[in-house]
Amino acid sequence: MSVQINAKMVGELRESTGAGLMDCKKALVESEGDFDQAVELLRKRGVAKAAKKASREAAEGLVDTYIHLGGKVGVLCEINCESDFVAKTDDFKKFVRDIAMHIAAASPVCVSREEIDPALIEAERKVAEGQAEGKPAQAVEKIVEGKLNKYLSENCLLEQAYVKDPDKTVQEVLTANIAKMGENMVIRRFARFQVGA
Length: 197
Hints:
Layout: H1 7-17, H2 21-30, H3 35-53, E1 60-68, E2 73-81, H4 84-87, H5 90-106, H6 118-131, H7 137-155, E3 161-162, E4 165-169, H8 170-181, E5 186-194
Antiparallel strand pairs: 1-2, 2-5, 3-4
Helix pairs in contact: 1-2, 1-3, 2-3, 3-8, 6-7
């Protein structure tokens, strides 16, 4: 017995995920009307679609500002996409603003691990080694690597828990937006300013 997929179900799934109507209907049909399973299917497809788009050049986009805490914290952020058309959409503008707000709140030091200053990593390594002193030799390496990974995930923008939805990383939010808007996007750079810092 097959489940009847109606417009209300498709609309609710679209509202929840931001995916296209046909994608939502297809996911509901494949999951036999199971909403949670349909969401999971759409997430997997979104990641796959985003991965296909990753090689495409993103040379358009926006530079946006966000000022927080009565002018005590400010962010200047550049996010690129493939076309001027997408850059002008409300969805893209909202995404850029949300990322700038996240940067103001979470204070990352770089966009990704590849950009972090090696001197910072070395300093963190020395701190971790000092904290692991006196432990068995085989445990020290695991402790140091664990602490370094924790430091990087807390300080690299793409790995941080997204302030508006801590169950997702900024990378997962970026990937979802790439799938939703149908273009490759890159968080290119940012600058965070804080009074007195």
